[in-house]
Structure formats: structure tokens, C-alpha cells
Amino acid sequence: MANKEKPHSVTITNRRARHDYHIGETFQAGIVLVGTEVKSLRQGKASLQEAFCKAEGDEVFIYGMHIPPYEQGNRFNVDPVRPRKLLLHKSEIRRIQRQLQEKGYTLVPLKLYFDKGYAKLEIGLARGKKLYDKREAIARRDAEMERRRAEAARP
Fold it and tell me: Residue 37: CB partners within 8 Å, gap ≥ 6?
């Protein structure tokens, strides 16, 4: 029998991004990694909390993404927070660059996962939320949680 990997197996999310930004268009990008980084990712070890993306020339890079060294990696381990190139189509890069020219837009990493054996990063064009937007989202989430609790308490 063939070993079928379930889609989006190891998932690392940047929960803070959805709290701090209004996410617009999203893109799926491949990442240029070395072997020990892939092994560390497969163990579910990575952090997108302080990561950000930049479009430089005709390329897009992710900075600040932390992938800890693989324990058995010895000399093949690389810097855990080195910049990594993202693999996108030229048309997507051009569209991203046009959006980033507009005031207030930024490119944030949202989710890191494996798709058909390849590490993929979901990135999104985002606008920063104001403080009142964040409070409104928290209030809405709390109200929804209270509604569910009340619904579950009813026989």
C-alpha cells in the first residue's frame, strides 16, 4: 500500500497575525530550506510569531522565522533565524509588489504546513487593525463563546 500523506499534515500557525491584521488576499509559497530544517519542521518545531516577509527585487523573502536546529543535525545545522527565499510565480510577486506600494499594506506569514511532501507557507497581504477593531473582535469572540456555553447547558 502507498503511504499517503494527509494534506496539510504538520501545521504551524501565526495566530497573532489574524489578531493584529485584516487579512486580504492570501498566497501559497514554497520555501527554500536545507535538509536539517525540513526534519526540524516535520517534528513541528518552528515559530512564525516574529516573522515578516519582504519583496526585494523580483524575489520574496521571509525574515525572523525561527526553525530550531535539528538535534541529530550536528555540523549541517544552519542559523535558526536566517532569511529564507519564498517561491512564488512572477505574476504573484508583481501583484504583491503593487499592493505593498499602497500605504498600510504589509506581507505577513499566516501558516506553515506540508503539502504533498513539500513545505509551504501561506502568506497574506494585510492591513493593520486599530485598537478598537481588536477590542471589537475580542468582544465578538467572547459573546460567541458565551452563546455556545448557554446552548450546551440547555438540556
Answer: 67, 70, 78
